[in-house]
Amino acid sequence: MDRSGRARKWVVVLFILMVTLQKAGAQTVEELAVAYPHAYAVMLNYTKDITLFMENGEPKAESKVAVDILILDDKANGMYNRYTIYHGSFTPLGKVDAYTDVPVKRGYDRIKVPEIKTDNSRSRSVFYDDVKVSSFDFPSLKKGAIAHVQYTQYDNDVHLLSPLYFVSYMPVINQKVTVTYPKQMVLNYKLRNDSLQQVQVVTGKKGSSLTYTFTANNLKEMDRPPDAPSPSYDEPHVLLYVSSYLDKDDKRVGFLDNLDELYQWNYAFLRKVPAVNHEKMQLVADSLTHGLHSDTDKARAIYSFVQHNIKYVAFENGLEGFIPRPADLVYDRKFGDCKDMASLLTDLLTRAGVKAWVTWIGTRDIPYDYTDVALPLTDNHMICTALVNGEYVFLDGTDPGCIYGFPTAFIQGKQALVAIGEKEHKVLRIPEMDATKNRMVDTTLISVTDKGIKGSTRLRCYGYMGTAAYNNFSANKNPEDNKEDVKRYTSKGNNRFILDTFQINYISDAEKIMCIQTQFSLPGYYNKLGDEIYINLNLDKLLTSDHIIDTAHHKTASLRRFKYILNQYTKMELPEGYSIESIPDNFKYNSEELSFEITYTKESKAIVVRQQLQSNSLMLPKSRFVDWNNAVRKIISQYKEQVILQKKS
């Protein structure tokens, strides 16, 4: 390139950069680095222009996205180079243009991204899907550089419009989303989690079309600790949906205006399920329930068969992600996704005389209720709902360890959309299993020796606690793995704990009840001063400093898998020639989320300590963090109390 050509190139690049920086409020790299001291890069501009239109009598959408990333520190190189775009049969990707404008002595050089690779998305939970990922690496990310990408993406079914999130993995200086739609279309939106009013909404016109414009500025980067719920619980976002439109004859066509219309869209997929071999499936149902007379026994038997004989394999390939496969095909292949398992369960239960229906539901990753957000994004899962002895039972075949009568833990508290018939549905609330159903009970007997203490433990697990332990231990092939897991479940006192022997008993496969029995020793556990022995009988610290929440950095609620109770019963035989000098006072704490109790009881030749910790919430809100931490600190303080034994004179 000659000098005049290179000069023209610099002029063009400088002009674009001036426009980009003007959009950012003319803040310099240094000013932004001061404003965001922990950020190595900021998203200067994120713009998305969505255009909805009618094509062949159906609503469609096209989105044009442009992103500018300003590098504030050379350390961004290696952290923010990779950029990915997900797309598939419902959201095909158009042209992609990406480059980096790199500062040099006389201006900027533009370095194009050399290659954009497109591969299949390889989700660990999905056997086959049609989701593609196009990815590339921005070159030369040095301080002052601006990485730019722009692309076009299409929505072939606007029932499935993605939420618009106003947050990113780096600070966002300017974000603007413009939605343009024709007058014959009714487009609505729901703005969620914007108590700080960060998102500004303006309605307008563009020629003969209508517009929504959503803007936000100076957004902090997303910071999600491991126990955080999904961003849809607390990050600002917009849900766009078409309520209705006018067809070519100016007649209203309902789209997603209410729950009935969502149900009709869902039910249309059930109509596409191929017919089953009725004679064959009746024989299967009869064989599984032979000799069983109650609906409960029939439902248990069929559920257990599906759990243990149908392997969960997810499919998300176009319409395969929405249409259940026929029950006979699932039975023959012995594998299927959540919809396939729901299809098989519903078919077999119905043939056995138990009322059952396929059911759409969202997992706890999704915060929406059907009665509030009647949109396809409210669910991502399918189960079977059965009516057994007048009570609804929610059966999820994807978890082989789930106990009959328990919902899978990840759908507790969610609304379920039950497909009663073509024109009839029910919305039911999945129960949250009470803490009393999910228990771990530890009974430990100890005695004092010259070298420390020795003892035995019997640990029993029930409910979700039992499922977790049962699945964990039954999956171990190596005895050494079992030994390490037994240590993890039953270790006492401190790191001197020695597991001498252990035995695992699987008491009930159906109820997932198991028992671990151990013999152990703890060298040097107590202190002896003269004629007195000082010993801490809180061998299990159910809460420690690790459970204190860092309120300065933890900015989201804290998610828990299930409610539970931990019971710890410790009995110490008095050593020969010793009596009880003193025991600590009993302690009790109660709050909405947590209850805890320690009691000390004297017996003629022993001391008994009982602990109980009860966790009562599936999610701890930020507003309760201070109270939670205060409770944990009080409990930790109680754990320091010791029993004093006095040698008899």
Automatic annotation (TrEMBL):
Matching entries from Pfam families are given as:
DUF3857, Transglut_core
Q: Where is the Transglutaminase-like domain?
A: 284-357
Segments forming a coiled coil: none
Annotated SUPFAM superfamilies: Cysteine proteinases
In this protein, which residues make up the domain named DUF3857? 112-221
> What protein name applies here?
Transglutaminase-like superfamily protein
Source organism per UniProt: Filimonas lacunae
